Amino acid sequence: TFEEAGQLLDKYFAQLEAEQKAQAEAMSAVMREEGEGFLAAKAKEEGVVALSNGVLYKVIKEGKKNGKKPALTDKIKVAYKGMTIDGEEFDSSESVEFPLASMIEGWKIAIPEMTEGSKWEIYIPQELAYGERGSMPAIKPFSALVFEVELFNVVAPAAKK
Fold this sequence. Notes:
Blueprint (H helix, E strand, L loop, with lengths): L1 H43 L3 E3 L5 E6 L12 E11 L4 E11 L5 H6 L8 E6 L20 E13 L4
Antiparallel strand pairs: 1-2, 2-5, 3-4, 3-6, 5-6
């Protein structure tokens, strides 16, 4: 009957949903473990410095001696390249300005430590990047990320709303 067919379909879709959820959870565990392993190995490398909450960085180029450091309320001008831990580039810009407060948490921890003219490679744990939601298709859920960031300058305090 029509009712039995509907019940079979409901059962099928519930099973399919359960299987997809299980696959997603398994994938999430793998992504978490890979990210944690990557960051643990990075932390042991020479020249890598730890900041709060597991954010790490390595100086590629020292900034100006008395260069300004941005505050979270500032707008910054940077060049950057974003990569997954396996080196896959997902985003980049040679020159862009934006309010620091609008960025992912890992940037809000690392960038205020940089002086103008600095270029760093920054390693960000998944929970301070895009966490469980990821940013598909390039950034899978629970992905640790790597950013190469050059801070050109602190433009101005971001406009108040």
